Amino acid sequence: MFGVLAAVLGVLPLLAAGGLVFSAVKNHRIQTGNDAFIPAAWHNLRTDEIFPDLLRDPAAGAGQSTGWLRQGIAEQSGCKEALVERLAEVAVAQGCTAVLRATYVDAGGEAAATIALCVLGSNDQALAIERSGFSVVADRPGPMVVPVAVPKTAAAGWRTKLGYGGGTDSPTLFGPYLAAITVGPTDPDRRYGDLPAGWTATEEQELRIYQTLAMDLLGAYSRSFDRAVNGR
């Protein structure tokens, strides 16, 4: 099934009529010195710098997969609206004030992901959430972000009940940010444990693939955002 995820089978239309399906986050620029740029980066960076059109791991070599294609960027949201309840409660307690989200689809069109950039009070508060067991490398942390469907794209049917993998990560060394993710299939009718002849994976093994995808994609996003913040 997921050998297809790394192959380009024909890119689906990303954005209708040459523009985003959702209103882009407004970039109200805050004039600051260099020392204060990192906490203001979510204001000052362009939305396509925060959420690139094509998301690939900037640290990986030429042999990496084709990558994930951005389908749309949602308007800025509150923490309780954008995050699953169990993460939202912890994030608000750690100073969460805003969440930016974008939805991506793998190049084969079979998996969707919504990535969130959460603005917290400090980097220490982001790390505190990591220590709470929500980390993407924790034991099956599960989906963390409320999925954002994007009409007229491969992610048109993407919704909460399809989210199987997820987690959180602190994307910068000093910034007040937490990155979070939910990953699952784009096909709302996909059934697990009912595989074609010759397949030996169980339902649990198959669903575990989405957690692996979540780990890989969130790691790629964190490194991409860190490079954007630090101008590399």
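Above is the first protein from milestone M3; the second protein from the same milestone is given next.
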Amino acid sequence: MHSKESPMYPTRHLTLPTLKQRTGRAVALAVLTTAALTGTGAADALALPATPPAAGSTATADSSATVTVTGGTTADAGALREGAAAPAAATLRDRIAAAARGQIGVTESDSACQKYLTGKGQTCRNTSWCAAFAEWTWRHAGVKSVPTTLLGRGVGKWGQEHHLFHTGSPKPGDLVVYGPPAYEQGGHVGVVVSVNRDGTLDTVEGNVSNKVAHRHIDPRTAKGGVKNWKISGYVTPPGA
């Protein structure tokens, strides 16, 4: 694991204008996103295949990987910060994972989490907001049909109603549901951002100790929610 100052990737600070000159704006943004998701340098990312990964592929992004954008416009930089969706060249699953990772560390202390509850008439200090965070992540990545319930187990029930709920083979971008699907309290929900070779998962979950947190879990034993439910299954994003 290397920080952005690591000499292993001396080209990581390639500016967006330089990349534009070499590749064009759309590809440059895709390159920078690939660098951020994989932990490679920008020049290394340029050498990766231009064809985006298939929707079923897994990601093993390092949550500490960062990329510095310098010399670009505000809009260019905005495409890679504050959980902004990844460029259109990335797959839907990539965009969901990038949006979720971009929110790690958001807390209740400064009400930064309130954006997940926009239009719901609630505050993140007086209601459980894990499901609202999951909904925000999907919506921010461009998913058209999203669950709007504030219940973690309710997300699973929504998935069943839309024939999107499954009990195995999770993929990045799926929502992981703790507790049997039902419109009842006591469960929890998060976003799968990486599926690892050893069967473990990396997730990003809202309302974990009052913040958005990264978790590295074994799906066979992981628990969540006030009732400490085990994982019941996953919900696939429509269109993925």
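Note on the second protein: The longest strand covers residues 188-195.
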